[in-house]
Write a structure and sequence with these properties.
homodimer, mainly alpha, two-stranded antiparallel ribbon, 16 helices, globular
Chain lengths: ~325, ~325
Amino acid sequence: MKPMEQRLAENATMINGYLEEALGGQEPELLGKASLHLVEAGGKRLRPYLTVKACEAVGGRAEDAVPFAAAVEFLHNFTLVHDDVMDHDDLRRGKPTVHKVYGVPMAVLAGDLLFAKVYDVALNNRPPGMPAERLIESIAKITEAAMTLCQGQALDIGFPSASEVSVDEYIEMVGAKTSSLFRACAQVGALAGGGSDEQVEALGGFAWDAGVAFQIEDDVLGVTADEQTLGKPVGSDLREGKKTLINIHALENATEDQRRRIGRAFGVEDASREDIEAAVEALREVGSIDYARGVADEYVARAFKALDAIPDSPAKEELKALVEYFVKREY
Amino acid sequence: MKPMEQRLAENATMINGYLEEALGGQEPELLGKASLHLVEAGGKRLRPYLTVKACEAVGGRAEDAVPFAAAVEFLHNFTLVHDDVMDHDDLRRGKPTVHKVYGVPMAVLAGDLLFAKVYDVALNNRPPGMPAERLIESIAKITEAAMTLCQGQALDIGFPSASEVSVDEYIEMVGAKTSSLFRACAQVGALAGGGSDEQVEALGGFAWDAGVAFQIEDDVLGVTADEQTLGKPVGSDLREGKKTLINIHALENATEDQRRRIGRAFGVEDASREDIEAAVEALREVGSIDYARGVADEYVARAFKALDAIPDSPAKEELKALVEYFVKREY
């Protein structure tokens, strides 16, 4: 099997051309540029990859999944553009966010256009032989994800800090903000590939659990990876007092002393490198990092088990490899 | 025929129940309330009325059009919520706008949810007997309108004042901001009612032209109606330097002296009642009000002509009466 980076890059190239063509020639030009801004900023195109591989895993052709892969990537980009407006974030994928460059009104509008494009590409590029009822089902899955993403973002806005969130609420929020779209990706890929209802459901279940594991692993990397791997300063999640599974677990389980050491970095914007290191050490002592890793592993195991309903194939192996690549990295 | 007000009110009652049910039980509660805010503020439900009557005009049952009528009303409300954010407007339908009550982040999100609900209601309430292909066609029409609405709003943001817009650009913008959704309303109503392709197109054409006439008549009312009819101070469009067909025509055709009199009110926030009256008199002299009325009449005539392709029926008469009611009012 080719290295994961190469497979993701090949898939991204295929999807990017499609995305840029779908947004090409947009009038007025400024709206077109604002809509393309984040799309062109790159990204691993993980969701399109999931869509394409789910299609292949049920015996479909990759090209039949491409319109849906583009649709889910548009949906993802739409939510990122609007989330950045809501969260007042200045940087995304290493570039200034859409509203920093084009202003809030145009960013809201660019997000809206990307949302409309979700349906435009999915409706107007039906793969040959895909029954109308299956197209409707696909669009309904995408719509369900869109509604759940709104719900997840509302939960995120509603609970601004880790101290207000329980582990269960965290899992619910990750489910809504990440897994709902992962699931839709796998479902529409399987639908485009002509999968059975059982296969569509199995791949959707796989993707849901994989999404939770991905998000938790992101939390783990935030305190264990080095700055180069992370692309942002180590301990940013701590400094920002972010709702990560690690932080939530630690706030619930730390002793007075550990809590004090964590508190010197947690939510402290100008915490020093030493404060961060001491806090991470305390998180380790509490067992919060191991706890998060354990939960991620559970979700990976559940995700893999869901794939039992799918016949063995290279695509099935690639789906597993994707999860291994993102969740089982050693640092 | 019942009075127009009564028919609109009966239709609104039917649609409102549907809209509120579709948003009911939304979690988290705050997102649900923010999404319902504008929907509950009322409105004439003109677009749902168009949808239902287009359905009946091709021999369909009103109830088969209701999910689509709800969808287009959600689309309309989504654009209003986001437009108010973009334009920093504080009042809508006599109530504070969503972002004034719930803040910009929640207003952006509420708009996004309303947009997702467009598809949710349309996809999951297919009328018995409506073929899948026709449902797909309906959703594609709605999507096309959504994309064009984004384009229209971008044009609106891009040309902030009347002096930068030609008559042709004004008509293009009105088409994108109003007629595109009017057309989709009539098209999906006709599709839900089982209309032929020719009927779908004819009703779409009717609605497009009616939309342009509606918008121009709004411009005319802005300088000819009294405050009670208008629901806002007479001459607001003048004070705000708004892009109305009347203002654009006047800026292109006024003499020096007329231009001077108009200039005392145009874009002058604290223009006095006398300044406004003198400016309106000048607009009248230039012929801008008659010009706008003439253009609206032309669009009404074209709209009515498009209906020739539809067999006579009470619904067809009601569609004509709707246009007469809104465009041919005497003041």
